[in-house]
Amino acid sequence: MRVAMIGTGYVGLVSWACFADFGHEVTCVDKDTAKIAAIERGEMPIYEPGLSELVAANRRAGRLKFTVDLPAAVKAADAVFIAVGTPSRRGDGHADLSYVFDAAREIAGALSGFTVVITKSTVPVGTGDEVERIIRETRADAQCAVVSNPEFLREGAAIRDFKLPDRIVVGSEDARAREVMSELYRPLYLNRSAILFTGRRTAELIKYAANAFLATKITFINEIADLAEKVGADVQEIARGIGLDNRIGAKFLHAGPGFGGSCFPKDTVALIKTAQDHEAPLRIVEAVVAVNDARKRAMARKVSNALGGELRGKTVAVLGLTFKPNTDDMREAPSIPLITALQDMGAKVRAFDPTGMEQAKPLFANVTFCDDAYSCAEGAAALVIVTEWEQFRALDFARLKTLMASAVLVDLRNVYRPEEVARHGFAYEGVGRAKK
């Protein structure tokens, strides 16, 4: 099939590369000529394992093209995906849909023959109705069906998630549109991936409900971790104990410094705003957002406590800046409020991240960025693991001890066993673990 993908952000990049790998002819559209030129040179605007290789292979095969000419791409397409950004709107927290609506107007002017217009961006309930209204208003003669097809991709594992999905949600009651969507995803049938056909508004809400539920699981185990510390229990054993219950499941029960990234923070807030607008407030989700925001900055107090309650004049080494491993995404990363709070307490901060350094540098002032974990640790009173990169899972503690001003490890991801660290002469501070 011929596919046009509007937008070369995270979702768009992965989606068009994977659709091309399925054998479809994909044309990617972006207004940023410099960005398109960079992608054509093989320079990806994001870091995602395997993406560069996938793009290069499908370009060589002639299935993947890039352009700034939206009308030409849309006119030739059987299916047009809208995969533009929907950031939180400044001032009120609602999703900013201006990019989606602008894309809809441009698409409408270029439609030729029956075309399925698919919203891949994360959008509030009712957005598909407005996209359809815009298209009909712009082109009364347009032959199209507007579909919701939310994404469920994890940064760092997005290609695998696209090709081996738990489910594919398609929101449309149009028979022709459902046929097109079935054909688009037909290569996945060998993997027995279930396509869940729903109404359009239901599909839109599924995406937000899924992210809010996962955010709630994270926040729940974080609060249990705080209680575990007070009563002398181990949150990791608690998580395993409840996660073995099939009704609960083990995923997203990892205590840490709070959730971040491009989805959970903005999507939970957008869902809350939608619920308030419809007079159906979501009190649980409201609490999740409030608790998570407070938690990120509270992690600095954990560092302070590990150093006797005084940080002024001391150097703290931070390992990991991105919100999770295997990405360079700094959006809403827990490292941001943590480092800000450490500096407010008078600490000097050194930092290292395997891929996120360039994205992090504009976000911080007076932070020393280092080349690796060991140069980062030089002269530090405490070493803080914020992101659980694989590179930080087998640190040489004997070497670290010779480099640091004091042997203190604050493990905000519970990467290490306390007794293992103690054997190397380090004081250990984890999350949700009783003091030994």
Main attributes?
single chain, 436 residues, alpha/beta, Rossmann fold, 2 domains, six-stranded parallel β-sheet, 17 helices, 14% strand
Outline of the structure:
The protein is of the alpha/beta class. Helices cover 43% and strands 14% of the residues. It contains 17 helices and 14 strands.
- What's the count of strands? 14
What low-confidence regions span 5 or more consecutive residues with pLDDT below 50?
A: none
Tell me the CATH architecture of the largest domain.
3-Layer(aba) Sandwich
CATH C-level of the largest domain: Alpha Beta
Number of domains: 2
- Looking across the biggest beta sheet, what order are the strands in? 3-2-1-4-5-6
Number of helices: 17
Global outline: elongated
